[in-house]
Amino acid sequence: MFSRFPNLNRSQRQPSRQRSNISSRFSSRGKDAFAIQRDLAEILTACRFYVELYLDGSKDGVDGLFMECKGFKVSQEVVEFTEVFPEPWGKAKRGMLYTSKLPGAKTTIDNISLRRGLSGSETLWNWLNAVQEGDWAKQRRNGSIAVYRQNGDIGALFQFENAWPISYSVTDNTASSSELACEELEMACEVFKRISPP
Question: Is 110 helix (H, G, I), strand (E, B) or coil?
Answer without folding.
Answer: coil
